[in-house]
């Protein structure tokens, strides 16, 4: 394990297979795909930033790196990807074995280049799109949260406002004293040109092409996008006058909410004003969209919002049309280089499932909360803008590129990016996620954004491929061009070398390079993708079959003897990860709404391995008088009357008091001097929970509950049902879980039996 963490600390990469299966056939037998979870902008405090442009191979354009073979006498470097011999340019003339440029140092496999830009970068733009079809109480919460957020905006950033309900209003902020808005009908699809014409963008200059920045005067842009430092008054007056949508809503109807039209107007406004510059649409939505091309449900309240069952049976009449609309919007935003962030705050679904495509393809953030008053929303919004350098460290306009050794191809990326459809020799015919390309757009990315690259080994079995070879290395180069939050253009380059093995004896080497946590994270993304993209896909069957095949290939056993079965420590917790993945929110979707599922998967698809593992298999800590906080098994047997449990399920953090603890607390013992130890015991898990909340985005929901209380379900649902109502003996803690799910013991039993039969 430790060595995989070291590799991550050096390059921001984790791979299920750190020794690669060397042939197509071997890689198929490995079941878990050859893949990598990569965090392109992971913070490395000691990483050098080189103030010049990189040297590129003249054939394949990959960048000079520590794996190149260098001839110091002839001043030549050999590209490890295509074996091209490249001459060093004159300014590298002084290079010798003892005088290397930083990009050739063995430890700098990840390095950044900063090329000076001629023109000053355009400041970041934040365009707020605000739903006004919400009750007064929610509106008050929303205004408070927004005015706090605006206070935190960096002074040079530009801000704009669009509000919507039945109609869409674009607010002109540039003329503080006379507030002016442009109004659009919410039900109609409007083209970009119509929008611009309506807003008098070209009144003085007819015939100017929209989308060309030079075509728009700074004055035109300044009407709608104003510097945060100058617009406090104008913004506050818009906020103060912000009213609930005035159109009456009959008791049996939903409000007329034209979310999609508002987003379309916002995208076109940015497209006209700041194409190609870093800009975010921040959508704050308080209910289901009922009007326009992206409506998810009719206005009639008797018609329920689509469920997973409806989607499964193809009986969600609005779904396909809405997704198609947002796919179009995502293409527009990707072309413009702009991001869509979504804050969905309602008890109802709002259409996250339909909007997912536009958020994910632009690298946007998503937060789902019950109300604009909930800390999940308030604290997350604050986190976006907090501190001088932004807590999330937003970067913009990313382009991500991959190079591989010639025996590897790329199937695609599962994660927040968009394929630029640049087909080349390294694209696989099989497409997973965003594929058919070697270049992807990442409109928005931050230090946490993590992509999952899925590879294919295409090397055929041949006598050379299984015998010992002089060159048993595969190389990958991952390049990320981006604009950092200071507006500087950077290029992050990560070059990786992994050994490949094939033929007899390779199993032990493959085992030694297996990172089971990375494998679990990859399997979670792959199963989620298959559930969304393959009709009739049975996730449980697929996961079970994959696990059985993996165990029969890498387990140690005598054929047909289940009791002889054992797994190397490298694989030993993988079955447990798969057990919890089967029961997780990613696979058991019927326990949630389509909006919640979309939300969980969008977060999974942008997080690193450690965080993904917590989403799949929550962590559980126990606090008692007998011992300090200690990790305990995620099993119902962990529940005890004299314990406090802290469950971290990533989206939810639960502090669960055993019955006795709850009684003592209700009796107020913790306030008495002689029970100081009890007071400390009560406080410790709360402090630890706060620490988790502080560092995570979106901010998780905190649940404080007692054994047998109604909120206890947040804990119980995550525990292995080792004791259920089917069990004959009562469990020690007195809690049983009402479920027909198999428990882990039975699961493992089946697994061993089936694995030894293969
Ligand atoms: Zn090359």
Task: Please explain how this structure is put together.
This protein has 758 residues and is an alpha+beta fold. Helix 3 packs parallel to helix 11 (375-385). Strand 15 (338-345), helix 10 (352-361) and strand 16 form a beta-alpha-beta unit. The relative contact order is 0.11. 31% of the residues lie in helices and 20% in strands. The longest helix is centred in the last third of the chain and has 20 residues, at 676-695. The strands form five sheets. Strands 2, 4, 8, 17, 19, 20, 22 and 23 form an eight-stranded mixed β-sheet that branches. The radius of gyration is 28 Å and the shape is globular. Bound molecules: zinc ion.
**For the residues shown, what is the average pLDDT?**
90
**Proportion of strand residues:** 15-25%
Largest sheet: 8 strands, mixed
First-last Cα distance: 29 Å
Which ranges are low-confidence, i.e. pLDDT below 50, for 5 or more consecutive residues? Answer: 206-214
By secondary-structure content and strand pairing, the structural class works out as alpha+beta
Q: Choose one word for the global shape.
A: globular
Radius of gyration: 28 Å
Bound molecules: zinc ion
Number of extended strands: 28
**Helical content (DSSP H or I, runs of 4+):** 25-40%
Number of helices: 22
């Amino acid at each position: 394990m430790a060595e995989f963490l070291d590799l991550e600390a050096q390059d921001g990469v984790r791979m299920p297979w750190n020794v690669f299966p060397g042939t197509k056939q071997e890689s198929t037998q490995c079941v878990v795909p050859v893949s990598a979870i990569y965090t392109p902008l992971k913070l490395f405090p000691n990483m050098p930033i080189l103030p010049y442009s990189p040297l590129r191979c003249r054939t394949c354009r990959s960048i000079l790196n520590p794996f190149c073979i260098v001839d110091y006498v002839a001043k030549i470097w050999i590209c490890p990807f295509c074996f091209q011999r490249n001459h060093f340019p004159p300014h590298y003339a002084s290079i010798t074995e003892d005088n290397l440029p930083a990009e050739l140092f063995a430890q700098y496999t990840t390095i950044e280049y900063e090329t000076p830009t001629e023109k000053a970068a355009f400041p970041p733009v934040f365009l707020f799109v605000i739903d006004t079809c919400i009750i007064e109480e929610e509106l008050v919460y929303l205004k408070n949260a927004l005015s706090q957020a605006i206070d935190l905006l960096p002074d040079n950033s530009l801000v704009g406002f669009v509000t919507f309900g039945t109609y869409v209003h674009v607010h002109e902020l540039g003329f503080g004293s006379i507030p002016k808005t442009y109004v659009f009908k919410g039900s109609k699809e409007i083209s970009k040109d119509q929008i611009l014409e309506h807003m008098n963008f070209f009144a003085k200059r007819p015939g100017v092409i929209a989308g060309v920045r030079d075509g728009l005067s700074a004055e035109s842009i300044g009407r709608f996008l104003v510097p945060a430092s100058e617009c406090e008054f104008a913004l506050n007056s818009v906020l103060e006058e912000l009213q609930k949508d005035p159109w009456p809503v009959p008791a049996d109807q939903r409000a007329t909410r034209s979310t999609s039209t508002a987003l379309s107007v916002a995208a076109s406004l940015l497209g006209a004003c700041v194409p190609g510059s870093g800009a975010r649409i921040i959508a704050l939505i308080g209910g289901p969209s009922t009007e326009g091309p992206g409506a998810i449900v009719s206005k009639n309240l008797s018609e329920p919002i689509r469920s997973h069952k409806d989607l499964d049976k193809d009986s969600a009449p609005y779904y396909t049309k809405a997704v198609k609309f947002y796919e179009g919007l995502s293409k527009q935003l990707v072309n413009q280089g702009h991001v869509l962030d979504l804050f969905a705050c309602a008890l109802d679904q709002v259409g996250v499932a339909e909007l997912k495509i536009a958020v994910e393809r632009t690298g946007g953030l998503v937060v789902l909360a019950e109300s604009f008053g909930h800390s999940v929303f308030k604290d997350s919004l604050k986190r976006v803008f907090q501190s001088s350098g932004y807590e999330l460290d937003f970067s913009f306009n990313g382009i991500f590129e991959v190079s591989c050794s010639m025996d590897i191809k790329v199937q695609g990326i599962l994660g927040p990016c968009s394929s630029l459809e640049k087909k080349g020799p390294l694209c696989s015919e099989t497409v997973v996620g965003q594929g058919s390309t070697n270049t992807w757009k990442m409109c928005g990315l931050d230090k946490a954004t993590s992509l999952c690259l899925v590879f294919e080994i295409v090397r055929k079995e041949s006598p050379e491929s299984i015998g010992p070879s002089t060159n048993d290395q595969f190389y990958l180069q991952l390049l990320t061009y981006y604009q950092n939050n200071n507006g500087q253009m950077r290029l992050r380059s990560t070059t990786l070398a992994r050994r490949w093995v094939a033929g007899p004896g390779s199993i032990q080497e493959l085992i030694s390079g297996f990172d089971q946590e990375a494998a679990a994270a990859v399997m979670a993304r792959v199963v989620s993708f298959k559930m969304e993209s393959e009709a009739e896909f049975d996730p449980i069957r697929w996961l079970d079959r994959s696990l059985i095949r993996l165990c029969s290939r890498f387990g140690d056993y005598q054929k047909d003897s289940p009791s002889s079965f054992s797994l190397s420590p490298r694989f030993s917790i993988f079955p447990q990860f798969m057990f919890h993945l089967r029961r997780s929110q990613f696979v058991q979707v019927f326990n949630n709404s389509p909006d919640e599922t979309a939300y969980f998967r969008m977060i999974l698809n942008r997080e690193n391995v450690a965080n993904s593992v917590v989403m799949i298999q929550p962590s559980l800590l126990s606090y008692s008088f007998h011992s300090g906080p200690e990790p305990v098994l995620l099993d119902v047997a962990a529940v005890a009357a004299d314990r406090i449990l802290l469950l971290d399920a990533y989206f939810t953090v639960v502090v669960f008091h055993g019955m006795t603890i709850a009684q003592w607390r209700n009796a107020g013992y913790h306030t008495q001097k002689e029970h100081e130890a009890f007071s400390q015991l009560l406080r410790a898990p709360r402090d630890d929970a706060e620490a988790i909340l502080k560092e995570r985005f979106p901010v998780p929901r905190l649940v404080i509950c007692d054994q047998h209380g109604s909120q206890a379900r947040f804990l119980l649902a995550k525990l292995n049902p080792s004791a259920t109502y089917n069990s004959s003996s009562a469990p020690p803690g007195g809690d049983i879980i009402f479920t027909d799910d198999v428990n882990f013991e039975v699961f493992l039993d089946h697994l061993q039996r089936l694995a030894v039969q293969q």
